[in-house]
Structures are given as C-alpha cells and as structure tokens.
C-alpha cells in the first residue's frame, strides 16, 4: 500500500515538473495571453479569484484611481447581482474582439509589457447576448512570479452599460 502512494507521489511530481518546464518555455506573449484568458474565464464562471490573480497587489486604474481592493469589491457586487435568479448562472461574459482584441508589446528587458485589449462584454438575456461594454483597455503588466497587471492607463469606463 505504501509503495503505491510513493509511486503516485513520484508521478505527480513528474507531471508538476513537466508542467513547469513547458510553462517556462512559453514566450512572454503566450504567458500574458494565458493570464488574460484566465481572467475572462473567471468572469464567465462568476469567480473573482482568477481575475484578481491577474492583478498585482499595488494595481491601480489610473483613469478612475481604482485599486485592486476596489476591483475586488466591484466583482463581489457584480457576481452577487449578476446571476439569473432562476438558474443561478452568471449572466455576463467577455470575449476578445476577433480583429483587434489583443496587442502585446514586451519591453526589451522582458520584465514588463504594454497591453491593449478590445473586449466585448455581453449579458445573456433570454438567449440573446446584449453588449454591455465595448471595452478598450490599455495598461502595463509586469513579470512578478507570473505576469500581472500593475496599472491601466486608458479605459473607456463611461461606455459601460451594466444593467442587472
């Protein structure tokens, strides 16, 4: 019995090591894209953790002065109010615009990147998708034990139409 646990533990360690090797070979652009996709997937599932994991502790939106804690509070309210009362499903989703959804410029030192996003946020309403925000976001990410947003410098907040 103990032998099986030891073999299972070794197999798990080998998988984790292989995962680290594959992840370390990914380009900065691929890792940044993975962070943004994880944030969007978190939104689709109504989970704040994947979204917040992509924001540094000192994150600030320079257009509104919102901090990471402000984003956390806003997500709590959004997830609380944005669920279908009958199904319990979160009604909002976001998709990168297929034509110009993501531009990444990695700095020469490989430690930071400027990112421009064009995301179309939708709300499900009886099967139809209603655009709630045609979001244009620009900001900076830094490599800090994984890529994280440190700031956003341009966000068209005034065009949001979140209605529950």
Task: Describe this protein's structure.
This protein has 164 residues and is α+β, with helices and mostly antiparallel strands. It has a single domain (27-159), classed as Nuclear Transport Factor 2, Chain: A, CATH 3.10.450.50. It is 38% helix and 35% strand. It is built from 4 helices and 7 strands, in the order H-H-H-E-E-H-E-E-E-E-E. A hairpin with a 5-residue loop joins strand 4 (102-106) and strand 5. The radius of gyration is 19 Å and the shape is globular. The mean pLDDT is 86.
Q: What's the quick description here?
A:
The chain has 164 residues and is an alpha+beta fold. It has four helices and seven strands; from the N terminus they run αααββαβββββ.
**Major sheet details:** 7 strands, mixed
Query: Fraction of residues in helices?
Result: 25-40%
Q: Per CATH, which architecture?
A: Roll
Beta-strand share of residues: 35-45%
State the end-to-end CA separation: 54 Å
N-to-C SSE series? Answer: HHHEEHEEEEE
Contiguous uncertain segments of 5+ residues? none
CATH topology: Nuclear Transport Factor 2, Chain: A
- Estimate the global geometry from the Cα principal axes: globular
Q: What is the mean pLDDT? A: 86
Number of helices: 4
